[in-house]
Task: inverse folding
């Protein structure tokens, strides 16, 4: 009986030992893992802290020290003054270009309508009513009619009627031509002077680079890159302003010649009609 109880106790002790040993081993494994992970985490923490500023610096947007925006924001007074002058020239050139293109297109349209309707009317008054009140052809026609109907005055009577009407029509044509020519002088001035204004900005930028070299005592790239970059930008802007002005000037001159030839043809035909009416009235 005692041997059986001893055997039972031994069996229970053996089973308890077998049950506890895996738990102890698992606990030891967890402690070992925690001990090995702690140095790794301690090592990774400085790496992460060191990488954070680098990532922030990479994502942070940096200003280009050689860009046009940097010149506008941080450039010296001379550079900014040159930019303002070139900007005014460019805006003025484009404004004149669009306005004069609109005027010539409008005048060309009026010329087509005049050829189609004016000289087919029964009388000059009906012809005048068919023209636009604010148009150049209406102004020329009204001037010619008024000169033909009103030829009085102590001095103007010394001028024969034909010459008087011709003079007034020519004056009206000249006024129309002067209006079309308005602004072309500005385009010519911009086209001839803006490259030199940009060149002045270039020379000034190179002077600033040489000054910084002299102050620093060495020709490092960070000392001269900014002023030299600004100098090249000034040259490019000067050319960008000059080229459209020159092309626009030549284009407008050719368009004005074509349109004014139609205006002068209308004026000559109107003069003939007015002189023919006078002869008919004289009979």
Result:
């Amino acid at each position: 009986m005692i041997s059986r109880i001893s055997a039972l106790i031994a069996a229970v002790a053996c089973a308890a030992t077998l049950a506890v040993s895996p738990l102890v081993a698992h606990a030891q494994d967890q402690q070992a893992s925690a001990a090995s992970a702690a140095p790794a985490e301690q090592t990774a923490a400085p790496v992460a802290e060191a990488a954070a500023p680098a990532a922030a610096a990479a994502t942070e947007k940096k200003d280009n020290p050689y860009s046009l925006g940097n010149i506008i924001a941080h450039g010296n007074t001379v550079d900014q003054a040159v930019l303002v002058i070139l900007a005014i020239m460019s805006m003025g050139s484009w404004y004149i270009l669009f306005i004069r293109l609109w005027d010539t297109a409008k005048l060309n349209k009026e010329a087509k309508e005049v050829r189609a309707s004016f000289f087919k009317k029964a009388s000059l008054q009906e012809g005048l009513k068919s023209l636009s009140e604010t148009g150049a052809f209406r102004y020329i026609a009204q001037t010619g009619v008024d000169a033909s109907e009103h030829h009085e005055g102590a001095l103007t009577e010394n001028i024969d009627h034909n010459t008087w009407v011709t003079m007034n029509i020519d004056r009206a044509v000249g006024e129309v031509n002067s209006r079309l020519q308005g602004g072309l002088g500005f385009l010519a001035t911009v086209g001839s002077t803006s490259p030199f204004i940009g060149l002045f900005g270039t020379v000034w930028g190179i002077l600033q680079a040489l000054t910084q070299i002299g102050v620093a005592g060495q020709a490092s790239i960070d000392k001269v890159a900014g002023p030299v970059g600004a100098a090249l930008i000034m040259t490019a802007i000067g050319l960008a302003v000059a080229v459209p002005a020159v092309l626009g000037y030549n284009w407008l001159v050719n368009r004005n010649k074509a349109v004014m030839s139609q205006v002068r043809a209308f004026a000559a035909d109107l003069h003939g009609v007015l002189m023919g009416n006078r002869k008919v009235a004289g009979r």
Observations:
- Residues 1-27, 37-41, 54-60 have pLDDT under 50 and may be disordered.
- The helical segments are 2-59, 68-74, 77-117, 124-129, 136-149, 161-181, 184-216, 221-282.
